[in-house]
Design goal:
The chain is mainly alpha-helical and about 180 residues long. The chain has a single domain, classed as nmb1532 protein domain like (Four Helix Bundle (Hemerythrin (Met), subunit A)). The protein is about 80% helix and about 0% strand. The radius of gyration is 26 Å and the shape is elongated.
Length: about 180
């Protein structure tokens, strides 16, 4: 049977791989838009990418905030606490960047040309780099530390449960020898 913790982190890593692929595809589309090479054949792909960032990436961030980051926030290591705070802040910045970038991209998907091209390119460059830096921080520091913390937490929880179970069990007759036969 797979370890649920390993399955969680494999799932999160796979999502990061998909985000990388979608960012690179979006980079090509933005380049096409910038160079006036965007064609109607690009519209479906652009719509799919926008939908991915509107839905799956937001869900991914929520999963990290509920399943991964809490183990980092309770760390005694100040560096890890800073990383956790940075990752939360990154999610806010990524969301804010997408709120600005998404409608401009959707405009091109819908055949409109109102977005300012320099704003689009600049906004995408920031969004792209922030995503890459954010995922690297998660993959190199946050995920490994969270795995370690989760395993430690599970061990501590198992120990507490075992202690409570032992405390709640009736004492065996052998443990009361002194009281049955008088003081020794």
């Amino acid at each position: 049977m797979d370890n649920p913790d390993d399955t969680l982190f494999e799932f999160l890593d796979n999502t990061h791989s998909t985000i990388h692929a979608q960012l690179n595809a979006l980079k090509e589309i933005v380049q096409c838009i910038h160079e006036d090479r965007f064609q109607s054949s690009n519209k479906a792909q652009l719509g799919s990418i926008c939908h991915f960032f509107d839905t799956e990436v937001r869900e991914h961030h929520l999963q990290e905030e509920t399943l991964v980051f809490p183990s980092l926030i309770h760390s005694d290591d100040l560096r890890i606490l800073r990383v956790a705070n940075q990752l939360f802040q990154d999610h806010g910045w990524l969301e804010e960047n997408w709120i600005e970038l998404g409608p401009m991209l959707r405009a091109f998907e819908n055949g409109q040309s109102w977005p300012n091209l320099s704003e689009l390119v600049h906004g995408f460059e920031i969004f792209y780099l922030l995503n890459l830096e954010h995922m690297q921080l998660e993959e190199t520091i946050a995920y490994p530390k969270a795995k370690e913390s989760i395993k430690k937490w599970r061990l501590e929880k198992s120990g507490r449960e075992l202690y409570q179970l032992k405390k709640s069990m009736p004492k065996s007759p052998h443990s009361n020898k002194a009281s049955l036969f008088g003081k020794s």
